[in-house]
Amino acid sequence: MVTRLHVAARYSEVAIAGGTVYLAGQVPDQAPEADIEGQTREVLGHIDRLLAEAGSDKTQLLSVQIFLKDITDIGRMNAVWDAWVVPGHTPPRATVQAALADPRWRIEVVVVARQLNT
Q: Are 109 and 67 in contact (CB under 8 A)?
């Protein structure tokens, strides 16, 4: 069985199957004009909220893919990431430069995590 949260016509924000939580790519909504640090903080906040809603948290991250509009932002993005991620629970991660769907976005993050108590 698959449980989907925040289902829209084109995609769901979350899918849960077999104790695994899959998040759609998370992008800045409130701060599209913010710098990379502000956008990263907002996106990580979305991830925290969605994981909690799905019965998980950032200690359960299995895989993370980070897409940056400009790879030279990686140092400043990493500073925010390093303050957010739980030491000892750092997931496998890929970070690449990509053309994002909205030119105001500097970051998009895709997460796979395990549900707590599964």
A: yes
CA angle 28, 67, 90 (to 5 degrees): 95
What pTM does this model have?
Answer: 0.95
Cα dihedral sign for 17, 19, 20, 23?
Answer: positive
Spatial separation of the C-alpha atoms in residues 70 and 87, rounded to whole Å? 26
Rounded to whole angstroms, the Cα distance separating 92 from 84 reads 15
CATH no. of 2-114 = 3.30.1330.40
pLDDT tens string 84-99:
999 999 999 999 999 9
